[in-house]
Design brief:
The protein is an alpha/beta fold. It contains 17 helices and 19 strands. Strands 1, 2, 10, 11, 12, 13 and 19 form a seven-stranded mixed β-sheet that branches. The longest helix has 26 residues. The radius of gyration is 22 Å and the shape is globular. The two termini are 34 Å apart.
Length: 513
């Protein structure tokens, strides 16, 4: 049979897994293809010398036991994924020389904490929490518009338009600066932008609001067993309902017949056909790599190409041995801004220290982690950066990059270790292993242009464009994952679910599980 499959999903990240699992649940026969040698995308885990890390998950907001996302996730899996709460405090802000500020849940507790720190800004703080709700609702409206037929989406846009676009079209900095003139409070309200890669002066406030709000009901959660457990629960749903998942298979092109996407071709020349094709490799990567000549949708392609890439990052994976909690390790993540500025990137690596970092200790969050007799724990230090810092080595691969690239990496490691020691001096003494990942590694593993692990930039244009609908202008082709709504694992989850809804509206019946 020509249509061997109902659906082909290209890419096995969170969005692809959710779309595939939802459609499999409703009887669709799904084939998932992944170019990397491991399934799971940014949810996969890896190990070195007895330590394990997650590729791209640090905590989950919006997945509390009584929240709809958790019920939806449980519906997608044959057996529920166990999520462990991080605790009352989920993030700690270190901004310049100010006393570290712990961010807690629920919203009422955080509101009081902020008012205690900024007693003259109580009205502004109340306005902030109101704006978060409005911004979140605006992003939900965008998701609804993109997942239903365009004629109905236009009606929703008309109905919710003015209020919705007021929060989508303005940047985070614009909204915050309208709310408060207190520079220190403004920095606090904007500091967690690295959760989605949208710098405050360029990102749509709607995304910032939705991400911040996700932690304010039930706090943050971490998958028991590590991020890899997500794929361990979602992928069997595909296989147990007549589908397949294949790693190490790279799709090179869509097959199109009379303007309709009917299949895919792989690097080994295999042609596989299906009724619908879903791309989870990123919107820009889809139009740049998969569309054959003569597709006839240049206007759509040009609109997607008009949206730039998101930030990139350096990750220093750390292995510790010893009494880490006594040395200062916490379940809470830490946002580190040594210069006191928050809207900054590491543009001059490695000549100077990074001005924006994020520290996370995954194995302490995981109740299933067994430290063993040596008390082994894993952590990670991330420095937000720009592609320009590695661009000179982007074309060659591996050993062909030249002698200066290993030296460059060593300098990066040295700088990051020194920065970690400034904030966590006793923990630094327990480091027995460290390994650096650069934006080049992100580009190689994920295939994302310019190492942009969050995909497209978070600008208001990205939110308001019609080009990022789940159902593309090319018949038979759909987009899923973080680019169609918002970035990160939770954003990709929603992008995946809404993509499945756009293919089979019966999925909407399971919006609450």
């Amino acid at each position: 049979m020509k249509n061997e499959w109902d659906i082909i999903v290209i890419g096995s990240g969170m969005g692809g897994m959710v779309t595939a699992a939802a459609l499999s649940r409703l009887g669709h026969k799904v084939l998932m293809l992944e170019q990397y040698d491991k399934l799971g995308g940014q949810t996969h885990s890896f190990s070195r010398e007895g330590f394990s890390w997650d590729a791209g998950l640090h905590y989950l907001g919006g997945f509390g036991p009584d929240e709809s996302e958790k019920a939806m996730l449980d519906w997608l899996c044959d057996s529920p994924i166990e999520l462990a709460p991080i605790g009352v405090v989920y993030d700690t802000l270190h901004i310049g020389d100010a006393t570290p500020l712990k961010l807690s849940r629920p919203a009422s507790a955080q509101r009081l904490d902020l008012k205690e720190r900024f007693p003259d800004e109580t009205e502004a703080i109340d306005k902030w929490f109101d704006a978060i709700i409005d911004g979140r609702d605006a992003l939900y409206t965008v998701g609804q518009m993109r997942s239903i037929p365009s004629i109905f989406g236009s009606a929703v846009k008309w109905w919710r338009g003015k209020k919705c676009w007021r929060f989508c079209e303005r940047t985070t900095a614009e909204v915050v600066n309208q709310i408060t003139g207190n520079a220190e409070l403004a920095k606090v309200l904007m500091a967690q932008w690295g959760d989605f890669g949208g710098r405050p002066t360029t990102a749509s406030f709607a995304i910032h609001a939705a991400v911040m709000n996700s932690y304010l009901v039930a706090g943050a959660y971490y998958p028991v067993g590590g991020a890899g457990s997500i794929g361990e629960h979602l992928l069997p749903t595909i296989r147990n309902n007549g589908g397949e998942t294949r790693a190490g298979v790279e799709v090179t092109s869509l097959i199109m017949e009379n303007g309709v996407a009917t299949g895919v071709e792989t690097t080994d020349g295999e042609k596989i056909f299906a009724k619908r094709i879903v791309s989870n490799i990123g919107a820009r990567e889809t139009v740049d790599r998969l569309l054959p000549d003569g597709h006839g949708r240049d206007d759509w392609v040009n609109e997607i190409r008009s949206i730039g890439p998101n930030i990139c990052h350096y990750s220093l994976f750390l292995g510790f041995e010893g009494d880490v909690e006594a040395a200062g390790m916490t379940k809470s993540n830490h946002w580190l801004y040594p210069t006191g500025e928050v809207d900054v990137l590491w543009m001059d690596a490695p000549d100077n220290s990074p001005p924006a970092m994020f520290a996370s200790f995954a194995s302490l969050k995981d109740p299933a982690h067994d430290p063993g007799p040596k008390k082994k724990y894993a952590g990670e230090l991330i420095a937000w950066s720009d592609w320009s810092t590695v661009e000179k080595w982007a074309e060659p691969t591996g050993g062909e990059r030249g002698d200066d690239y290993p030296s460059f990496k060593q300098q990066i490691e040295k700088v990051l270790l020194a920065q970690f020691a400034k904030y966590f001096p006793r923990l630094a003494e327990l480091i027995v292993f460290h390994e650096l990942s650069t934006p080049l590694a992100t580009a190689s593993i994920t295939g994302h242009r310019m190492g942009s692990f969050y995909g497209l930039d978070m600008t208001p244009h990205r939110i308001t464009t019609d080009a990022l609908r789940m159902k593309t202008p090319i018949d038979g082709l759909y987009l899923t994952g973080q680019d169609v709504l918002s970035p990160g694992i939770p954003g990709a989850f929603w992008g995946g679910f809404l993509c499945a809804c756009s293919i089979d509206p019966k999925v909407f019946m399971h919006m609450n599980g």
